[in-house]
Amino acid sequence: MNQKKKKGLIALVILLVVAIGVGFAASQDAVNITGTASAVATDFDIQFKTDAEITIQKSAGATIVASGAYGANGNADATMTVSGLKNTGDYAEATYTIINKSTDVNADITAKVSSAIEDADHYNVEVTGGANGVAPDATTTVTVKVTLIKAFADDTAAKTAKSFKITATGVAAEK
């Protein structure tokens, strides 16, 4: 064979192999894509569980009044109101339930005081609880404890109700 025919034959064979490969790939139904995925804001939803009971505890003293309420801000906040803390060390606490309403994203859930603390030199507000890796539709609890760290000079100030806004926070977690 001469040189031109050899080159033409080789080109034809290469073209045939490419055509067969493209035809085979085009005939396949499944396409496999690998990589990573991440949650977007619309997939992630942490809320106070407004149908769960808020439990209240307080130090001994008939004058202490404490209450908790769930907010209306997309159920992302709650409020604790306290009055009657008279003596240093008096406290009241409320326990709230938070639910991971995300459809398929685990969450690390916490809560924080999100309002300015009026008379901050008299009150210590502490938020504890929460959990990591909370599955979709699962719950965890957080407890807000308000402690009087400095007594008021007059009884009227002790009887004045103080409210503290609590906001649920969370970040997406690995399953």
Structure description:
By secondary structure, the chain is of the alpha+beta class. It has helices at 3-27, 155-159, and strands at residues 46-48, 55-58, 65-70, 77-83, 91-100, 106-113, 123-129, 131-134, 139-148, 162-173. The strands form two sheets. Strands 1, 2, 5, 7 and 9 form a five-stranded antiparallel beta sheet that branches. The chain has a five-stranded antiparallel beta sheet with strand order 3-4-10-6-8, with no helix packed on it. Strand 3 and strand 4 form a beta hairpin. It is rod-shaped.
- Alpha-carbon Rg, integer: 31 Å
Contiguous runs where pLDDT drops below 50 for at least 5 residues: none
Principal-axis shape equals rod-shaped
Integer average pLDDT: 79
Report the count of strand segments: 10
Q: How much β-strand is present in the residues?
A: 35-45%
Distance between the termini: 66 Å
Percent helix, as a range, is 10-25%
Provide the succession of SSEs: HEEEEEEEEEHE
Number of helices: 2
| Class from secondary-structure proportions | alpha+beta
| Major sheet attributes | 5 strands, antiparallel
Layout of secondary structure:
Blueprint: H1 3-27, E1 46-48, E2 55-58, E3 65-70, E4 77-83, E5 91-100, E6 106-113, E7 123-129, E8 131-134, E9 139-148, H2 155-159, E10 162-173
Antiparallel strand pairs: 1-5, 2-5, 3-4, 4-10, 5-9, 6-8, 6-10, 7-9
